[in-house]
Amino acid sequence: MACEPLLHNLSYMDVLDAWSTLRGAIHRTPVFTSSSLDSRTEQSAYLKCEHLQHTGSFKFRGAYHLLSQLSPRERSKGVLTFSSGNLAQAIALAAHLNNTHATICVPRDTSRVKLEATRKYGAEILFYDRHKEDRTFFAQQAAAERGSYLFANDHPAIIAGAGTAVLELLEDVPDLDSIVVPVSSGGLAAGACLAIQGHKPSVRIYGVEPEGAGDTLLSLERKERTRIPPPKTIADGLRSDIPGVHSFPVNLQYLKGILLVSDEDILAAIRYAARHLNILLEPSGAATLAALLQGKVPGKRIGVLLSGGNIQTQFIETLWNSDRTPISPHRTSEKRI
């Protein structure tokens, strides 16, 4: 079993190296604007549409970057990690493209649509109970049994790959005041911080967590990684119980703050995105939009990373049964080049 690397001194150069690796392998996702959204928030919002990335989330960036760096020996043994769903799909596809096999440890309550996609890409799935079992220990045991290359979702290469999404946003919209990203274990936020510090340090970076899943908020307040009880939130991709080893030092240094949103705020944001923007988001992917709609993001020109769109059909039906307002047939957003 290969182990996690020692703490890596991440920098802007890691993000640039990742972007060089990823050229041609990922979508350069568009940035949308919406006059109706701007009127409602009295801000200018620039929506980075990572729900249009391969496998439906930004996770493919880091997954492909990491697996492309594996040695032939490591690829022959296969890879193993743990995920709530989006990283599982991303690793499964990246493993297929890099000629290796993926095993993913997922919570038993992982969304069905994410499980089906992960299996479709050829990965093996192992289930654990997130309320009773420690996912890291579970994954370590599984990797030891298989001799697989084990890594966590805040591996330095994954952080650097995630940061390329924000690097693109900064290139497309260079005069932003703030950027807001969702926070789980903190890898995306850390990558965003690195991209901003190297490209335009004056831009403020804020993270968004669901109420009841504020492990990063608590950890930042205490200035040390702090574990919380298993979070209960509809945003399954943001149910981290402790910040990542590699991501937390970066976020402690550069994040301007954590913005909390309720599940009700997230549901309202999903409805708004579908009705007024013709964008379908999963709960985790809508958290940043929720913070914007609730007036919690400082600044006038805001970059908003929409992280994923892998939403279950059953969830959509339940959501719309509780709100009968018709969806607008007209898109009010436009693509920025």
Provide a concise account of the structure shown.
With 337 residues, this protein is α/β, with parallel strands linked by helices.
If you had to describe this structure to a student in words, what would you say it looks like?
This protein is α/β, with parallel strands linked by helices and 337 residues long. It folds into two domains: 14-57 and 159-336, Rossmann fold; 60-150, Rossmann fold, CATH 3.40.50.1100. Helix content is 43%, strand content 16%. The strands form two sheets. The chain has a seven-stranded mixed beta sheet with strand order 9-8-7-10-2-1-11, with helices on both faces. Strands 5-4-3-6 form a four-stranded parallel beta sheet, with helices on both faces. Strand 7, helix 9 (187-199) and strand 8 form a beta-alpha-beta unit. The chain is globular, with a radius of gyration of 19 Å. Mean pLDDT is 90; it is low at 1-6 and 325-333.
Please tell me the total number of domains: 2
How many beta-strand elements?
Answer: 11
Question: What shape does the CA trace take?
Answer: globular
Q: What would CATH call the architecture of the largest domain?
A: 3-Layer(aba) Sandwich
Instruction: Using the coordinates above, name the CATH class of the largest domain.
Output: Alpha Beta
User: How much of the polypeptide forms β-strand, as a percent range?
Assistant: 15-25%
Query: What is the assembly state of the chains in this entry?
Result: single chain
Rg measurement, Å: 19 Å
CATH topology of the largest domain: Rossmann fold
Biggest sheet architecture: 7 strands, mixed
Question: How many helical stretches?
Answer: 14
Strand line-up of the largest beta sheet: 9-8-7-10-2-1-11
Point out poorly predicted stretches: 1-6, 325-333
What structural category do the secondary elements indicate?
A: alpha/beta
Our measurement of the CA-to-CA distance between the termini, rounded to an integer number of angstroms, reads 44 Å
